[in-house]
Design a protein that fits this description.
The two termini are 27 Å apart. It contains 4 helices and no strands. The protein is 65% helix and 0% strand. It is flat, with a radius of gyration of 21 Å.
């Protein structure tokens, strides 16, 4: 294991944030930019009754399309689940300490 990998693992999140903030305006501190391509949208199969309910709620919320409404709903749910995961992780860490 490299020295860099060992030192990175021992840094706290706060310390990493401080380092990144301190180096944010120093171009020499950053590597070559990378290009990221967007993944193609995925298809999703829904039962007819669920699709009809989603279409109704799309109109109720005055969203442009069912796809847009579903994207918003899924994003909100993912954010909620991630926040819950972080909370449980913190609780476990606090109980272990």
């Amino acid at each position: 294991m490299s020295t860099r990998a060992k030192s990175t693992k021992s840094l706290s999140e706060l310390k990493i944030d401080q380092i990144v903030t301190a180096q944010s305006h120093d171009d020499a501190a950053w590597g070559k930019p990378i290009r990221v391509q967007r993944a193609k949208p995925a298809s999703l199969w829904l039962p007819a009754d669920l699709a009809a309910r989603a279409a109704f709620l799309t109109q109720l919320r005055r969203t442009k399309s069912v796809e847009e409404w579903l994207t918003q709903v899924i994003q909100q749910r993912v954010d909620l689940e991630e926040a819950a995961f972080v909370g449980v992780k913190r609780e476990l860490a606090a109980n272990a300490a």
